[in-house]
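agent: user wants the structure for Methyltransferase domain-containing protein from Bradyrhizobium brasilense. delegating to structure tool.
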Amino acid sequence: MDRATLAAYDKEAAAFAQDWHGQPAPVDLQEIVGQFFIKGGATADIGCGSGREVAWLNANGFPAEGFDASEGLLAEARARYPAPRFTRAELPALSGIAAGSFDNVLCETVIMHLDHALIAPSVRRVFELVRPGGVLYLNWRVTTGDDARDAHGRLYAAFDTALVRSELAAAELLLDAEVVSASSGKVIHRLVAGKGRR
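agent: tool returned. relaying C-alpha cells verbatim.
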C-alpha cells in the first residue's frame, strides 16, 4: 500500500473506524454478496479495515476472516469484534495466505490506495486466493483525471478499468458496473468475477 495512506490509517484508525461505522449499512454490497457469494464458503475480506464487513459476513452465513495492512485498523477491528480472526497482510504479496484458500474473496475500496505499478499484481493476487468455482468481489473508488490525495494524505489512484479487467481475463465477469455507493455516496466501480472449475 502507498506509505502515506498506510500512515494515515495507522495514525487516525479510531476516527476512520468511527466514521465508517456511522455510515449507512452498505445494503447494495450486501445484496451483491448474497446473490453471488457461496453460502457457507470460507470467505476473506482483503483490506477489512475496522471489521464491519467481516462481522456482517459471519452473521449472514459467510464464515469470514479479515486481512489488512494497517495495524491501527486491525486493532480497531479486534476491539469491536473479538470473535473473528484479523491478520496483517499487505497487497500485493499477502504473505502467509495460500492460493486457493477461499470460496469467496471480498476486496472493497482498497486497490485505489496502491501505487500504479502494484494494482495489476494485486488484482492477480486476490483472484489467486479464490478456489476453482469461487467468487471475487472487487471494487474501488473512481478518480477521474490525475491521482489525488485527500486531506489525510490518502492516495486515490486514477486508472482505467481495462487494467483490472485484463488481469481477470480468465475469469467470468458476473457483474461490471460503475455506481454510487449506498454507504459512502462516492462513485465506485464494481466487478464480480467467477473462477471456473478446472
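agent: one observation worth passing along. The chain has a mean pLDDT of 96.
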